[in-house]
Amino acid sequence: MSKRIYLDNAATTQVRPEVLEEMLPYFTEHYGNPAAIYSFASEAGHAVAHARQAVADVIGANKDEIYFTGGGSESDNWALKATAEAYSSKGKHIITSTIEHHAILHTAEWLEKQGYEVTYVPVDENGTVKLDALEAAIRPDTILISIMAANNEIGTIQPLKEIGAIAKKHGVLFHTDAVQAYAHIPIDVNEMNIDMLSASGHKIGGPKGIGLMYIRKGVKIRSFIHGGAQERSRRAGTHNVPGIVGMGKAAQIAVRDMDQISDYESQLRDHLIERVLAEIPYTRLNGHRTDRLPNNANFCFRFIEGESLLILLDQAGIYGSSGSACTSGSLDPSHVLLAIGLPHEIAHGSLRLTLSDATTLEDIDYTVDKLKEIIERLRGMSPLYEDFIKKENA
Amino acid sequence: MYSEKVMDHFNNPRNVGEIENASGVGTVGNAKCGDIMRMYLDIDDNGVIQEAKFKTFGCGAAVATSSMATELVKGKTIQEALQVTNKAVMEALDGLPPVKVHCSLLAEEAIHAALWDYAEKHHITIEGLEKPVSDISEHEEAPEEEY
β-pairing, A142-146 with A93-97? Predict the structure, then answer.
């Protein structure tokens, strides 16, 4: 079996060849430390400045409001912990949602142990944050609202503009974890009143180990990594120049081709969703039907368990992911699927397929054909399916 | 992450299916944790297990341990089948990753549950067999604190 169909682009992406090409000289040729004074380092310094502009352009930010970090999780940690500390004299209450990535949820839980209060706003059956509940949760001591731009599992895009307006109306800071959305869908930090935003390089055809945080000018935030004067002394550490250059190039491509890629991916995604729902019985689509990431499809297949499904897909050369307990190392299935109201036994049978602009129609058709076979086989050995069929025939 | 034997029993599970009018049927686990095993046993008048079949909802390890458990009890007497412990199932599969050990416990429970059903149907007592718990999740250790 030589087929290889990579449908886990929400986990990570292949570095685009033109991105790698752009990065390579900064390992061996222009390897100077941008903080150095001599002319040899100026090439690296220019490259960082150039990339900073490119990544800022994606979200309509000023380049001076971009801080490079080690990745999305670092940015999320920084946003919550350092804002909490900087604004603790105003209050110790933070609002987030039940479907955030663990980089936000576990940081929020840690803050709770440090004496902060956190409200986890619920979502509806599509995974959209309930705006009335969000607004109702705001208190005089609320310092921060952190709501993700788009969900990593089910792909639902949040109403960022509405959330930003609510935050602004109440004078509360708004952070968004845009790791899955940045450079995939249009985001404008000014139009959407976003004060802070996290993004990652390797989700957009860039390298791993590089991310950014956008921090609006005027927002008070503590340094997270102490040391040198890099990133206006807010994030010390020698610049990851090749990584920054790579993320900058990936961002540039994304801005140039976003409409085209988004159209292409959503067409394939819709074809995938339509075929799966039409051809595989007892299946549901998770997440919003239309307000979802162009490359995300997430299903629950009743009576089967996700890990078994992933192993058999792997053997067919198809790489996907699941929110089943067995893949997370805990007994509970995905918190996101539970938050949209799915019972445990259905949440265990989930499959996430995330496409890229390299995915083809043939890939999708092959995947659906294989899925049909595999699901039939797994249902054939499922006691839940046996009970269900017996009940149906009774 | 899985041994070759586990993968073999997952890919080519032995004895998948149902036995009509089985001597004993046991279902253990729960859908909440993501594992349900049902074992069917056909036991002859001499108390020898002639046939064993299973159906399982669960991960790769759950399918493989069910498959191995049916193989291990086939042809055995009831007393011999009681000796098929989770450890025996694991050893026969060349081991399981630590997070999957509970699957082998489930397989042991499934054997016991099927034997218990047999004993109840035939109004007999099987020495050394206790009423199986239907939900093994209570045996699970709490996840490690991450902070």
Answer: parallel
Q: How many angstroms separate the CA atoms of A199 and A201, rounded?
A: 7
For B79-121, how does the pLDDT look when each residue is reduced to its tens digit (9 = 90+)? 999 999 999 999 999 999 988 998 999 999 999 999 999 999 9
Report how far residue A94's alpha carbon sits from residue A112's, in angstroms, rounded to the nearest whole number.
10
Candidates A77, A310, A311, A328: best to mutate against B (most CBs of B within 10 A) is A311
CB contact under 8 A, B57 and A384: yes
For residue range A307-329, what is the model confidence (pLDDT) as tens digits? 999 999 999 999 999 976 655 55
Degrees, nearest 5: CA angle A63-A68-A70: 165
Determine which one of B28, B68, B103, B105 is catalytic.
B103
C-alpha A295/C-alpha A11 separation (Å) is 12
Per-residue pLDDT, B134: 60
Nearest-by-Cβ selection for A329 from B32, B99, B137: B99
Q: What is the pLDDT of residues A190-210, one digit of tens each?
A: 999 999 999 999 999 999 999
pTM above 0.90, yes or no: yes
Amino acid A352: pLDDT: 97
User: How close does chain A come to B55, measured CA to CA in Å?
Assistant: 5
Those residues of chain B that have pLDDT short of 50 are: 136-147
Instruction: Give the other-Cβ count within 10 Å of A192's Cβ.
Output: 23
Q: Higher model confidence: residue A345 or residue A86?
A: A86
Using beta carbons and an 8 Å cutoff, which residues of B are at the interface with A?
A: 10-11, 13, 16, 18, 27, 31-38, 54-63, 99, 137, 140, 143, 146-147
A interface with B, Cβ–Cβ below 8 Å: 106, 110, 113, 303-305, 307-308, 311, 315, 324-326, 329-331, 333, 343-345, 348, 380-386
Cα separation values, B17 from B51, B53, B74, B89, B103, Å: 11, 6, 15, 20, 19
Q: What letter represents residue A83's amino acid? A: T
For residue A285, list its beta bridge partners.
A299
Mean pLDDT of A241-251: 98
A9 contacts: CB under 8 Å, gap ≥ 6: A203, A295, A354, A355, A356
Q: Mean pLDDT across chain A, nearest whole number?
A: 95
**Can you tell me the distance from the alpha carbon of B5 to that of A294, in angstroms, rounded to the nearest whole number?**
40
User: Cβ–Cβ of B34/A326 closer than 8 Å?
Assistant: yes
